[in-house]
Design goal:
- The structure is a homodimer.
- Chain A is of the alpha/beta class.
- Chain A has 2 domains: about 1-195 and about 370-454, 3-Layer(aba) Sandwich (Aminopeptidase), CATH 3.40.630.10; about 200-255 and about 300-360, Alpha-Beta Plaits (2-Layer Sandwich), CATH 3.30.70.
- Chain A contains 13 helices and 16 strands.
- The first copy, chain A, has a 6-stranded mixed sheet with strand order 1-2-6-3-7-15, with helices on both faces. A 4-stranded antiparallel sheet of chain A has the order 10-11-9-12. A 3-stranded antiparallel sheet of chain A has the order 4-5-16.
- In chain A, β4 and β5 (about 115) form a beta hairpin.
Chain lengths: ~450, ~450
């Protein structure tokens, strides 16, 4: 596919940039019109790439884009999944360029060419590889499979509306494999294929002390401060061994066998490099597990956001009425988001001291899942990537979550296959998200070859 | 003074409102021009009230207003202290009216007339009483004392520039008593005079984990989250008995005698009313002390603000790079802000785990102080207030801090006298700050009578 990429590169950039410029932030309701704009633009790109049919479908939330190309009704069907929504760009002050104006420039550290923009990798950049691999195969007369595309606009908020839409459109979505590029590989030197992802539960906790903000001099020391109380509660959620204290939290966690752990340990990992990349002196996590295991096969709890009281410039004193935290738990296969959400809410209410009130707002969660590496699809992907990278990819476990894939696996009865081409350097979800051109193109080639070997 | 108030009421409102409309927020550097506007307006009001001289004086920070009236060089001199700066109005969404547009309206709960505005009580409303009591005495030919006025613009940020200015202007400020209305009385039925205030130390703590915001799926469980770590650190600062764990924190705290405690316990206190006013089920504080003691004679630690990660709408996942907290400690007499600031910073650095970095930003603090209730000034104030309220005031200990008063006491060798007419209902430092008209006028009368008995 290399020559095709070379010839069409400029057009590829124009097309991808037109998607990246749309601030399709699903977490912010005011961006609703952008979700539609983005869905419409994707539909155009699908048609231009050669889809027989493509359209925007309403759901209870943001629209779904669906398109398809039927080559041979008796051939296998690949269902490509991607999402066109992106994470909020905040904190804005840490971006070197406009988060929604794509820029082609050199990585300041390595000098490599990359596209800088929110969504450059996650997932507009990665889903775009599928459009172009498809276009290439079709135009060159090499497409032997039927292809379906489903692009959703709620992945970053846990895909609340998609399961119902998938359920209602089972026939439309019939396929043999769900092909997804929305994950990261270990490194360019160590290409990897995700064979499992974590699920997630997410809740917002509000602690209310007094019914109004108070003068911290008049009341300080006599009335519980909800920020201090929230800190106490959060602090108690993880014990000194790094284990989560929510009762029942680990009940459904499957302990991996020695062999499975040894197999995962094949993925190379350089602790010094890891710490240097993050500029930390020490890692921290659950006792008895390695860093890769802590993100790959063990659940965790993180405060994703906290706020309360006066957060402006200067030294305002206040004993505030409320304090808030957004708390996520990454789950491993066999734990369910519903159960963990329930357990967490019960626990956080149980540990709330009598001098505060607690409110909990649940977000849609998702379950983790595993993919058998013995499958034909996995083997085809492995072969394709080995050819492009010159190295056989290792199986890995991704720490992230794509809530909808476990649902689709369950509803449609099809296994997903995660051919992800992101790298840690891309800093998705963070300021200055970017995607290396080399990976964008290697991804297209790998995907095109996957169709050849599948 | 009642008839004088009745005749001039309308003009009083106009004058006070002209001060209240100026958003003189000392914590926000962008309000610098407002500080000058407010100082100029105060100077005009001083001159109109009858001061011989009044002017705006530069300091290293916001300007000081100084004015004086010499009646008889051999008579005693009263130095009136007040501050024209105010707290930031945030959170704005909790105000029922514009925080800087004074409104005369009824208290929604009690139906009493009050002025609603930031600064209505603290301290523009309270300092205004002194201007008008002075004007009244002068115009009616009743002023027997020399009067000096010092109004500063940095009280709410700990008066960083005033000590140097006071030191440099010792002669100008020579007086027999520092008269201050910037505190709260127990209730209208229980008028009280503050005989001591707490000091304050204030620091901002920043905890940094990884050098960039991270994807909480890829790193969660393996890299310490600075929000969780900050919560752990904060949680460890107060033990289960409500005592602050900073080593050396209590070293200089003077334990009060049984008699002193019994004397303070004379102030009436209704726990059920207190809890109902705040809508809390239980109070919380240091073991072994009553609620009034916890705010009056014991130090405390409060988080005044906390922030980190994603705090917008929705469920963004992130393992953030940094987390921040603003922490205040109210101190009792004999503790010094400098020493406690030093101890706190040392401690917070000592308890920081190796997987984070900690930065500490110190704010200007202030010491607590005591006022002898046996003094002539205290007795004159007591007599004046007893006459106006029909009840003899009780001595009380205020939990708040006026950093500069301990400095002025030390530099000038004069004791302050705290005739405060605020009520808890005024919710100073909070949204919908207000000041009851009854207290505004009773304050003016009490102050005028103070001059008579002093």
């Amino acid at each position: 596919m290399k020559p095709y990429i070379e010839t069409n590169k400029r057009r590829f950039f124009e097309e991808l940039f037109s998607l990246l410029r749309i601030p399709s932030i699903s977490a912010k309701p005011e961006h609703k019109p952008d979700m539609y704009r983005c869905a419409e633009r994707l539909t155009e790109l699908l048609k231009e790439a050669g889809a027989d049919e493509a359209g925007v479908f309403e759901t209870a939330g943001n629209p779904v884009v669906f398109g398809k190309k039927t080559v041979d009704p008796s051939a296998k069907t690949v269902l490509v999944y991607g999402h066109y929504d992106v994470q909020p760009p905040e904190p804005l002050e840490k971006w070197r360029t406009d988060p929604f104006e794509p820029v082609l420039s050199k990585d300041p550290q390595t000098g490599e060419d990359a596209i800088y923009c929110r969504g450059a990798n996650d997932d507009k950049g990665q889903l775009f590889m599928h459009l172009k691999a498809f276009e290439y195969l079709l135009r060159e007369g090499k497409l032997k499979h039927n292809v379906k595309f489903i692009f959703e606009g709620e992945e970053e908020i846990g895909s609340p509306s998609l399961p119902a839409w998938v359920e209602a459109n089972k026939d439309l979505l019939k396929a043999d494999v769900i092909l997804v590029s929305d994950t990261t590989m270990i490194s360019e030197k160590v290409p990897s294929i995700n064979c499992g992802m974590r699920g997630m539960a997410y809740l917002e906790v509000t602690v209310t002390g007094p019914n109004k903000d108070l003068h911290s001099g008049h009341y300080g020391g006599a009335v519980a401060n909800p920020i201090n109380t929230l800190c106490d509660m959060i602090s108690s959620l993880i014990d000194k061994d790094g284990r989560i204290t929510v009762p029942g939290f680990y009940d459904d966690v499957v302990e991996l066998s020695k062999e499975d752990r040894a197999n995962l340990a094949r993925a190379p990992f350089d602790m010094e490099e890891y710490k240097a990349f993050l500029d930390i002196k020490e890692v921290k996590g659950e006792k008895g597990y390695t860093t890769l295991e802590r993100t790959g096969i063990r659940p965790c709890l993180d405060v994703c956001g906290i706020w309360g009281g006066y957060t402006g410039v200067g030294s305002k004193t206040v004993l505030p009425s409320t304090a808030h935290a957004k708390i996520s738990m990454r789950l491993v296969p066999n734990q369910t988001a519903d159960k963990i959400t329930e357990l967490f809410e019960r626990h956080i209410r149980a540990i709330a001291p009598p001098y505060v009130k607690v409110e909990v707002q649940r977000s849609k969660g998702g379950n983790g899942f595993l993919i058998p590496i013995t499958s034909h699809a996995y083997q085809a992907a492995s072969k394709a990537m080995a050819e492009v990278y010159g190295i056989e990819p290792v199986p890995s476990r991704g720490g992230g979550s794509i809530a909808i894939l476990a649902d689709m696996q369950r509803i449609l009865g099809i296994d997903p296959l995660l051919m992800g081409f992101g790298l840690e350097r891309d800093t998705i979800h963070s300021p200055n998200e970017s995607y290396l051109l080399r990976q964008l193109f290697a991804g297209m080639e790998s995907i095109a070859l996957f169709y050849q070997y599948y």
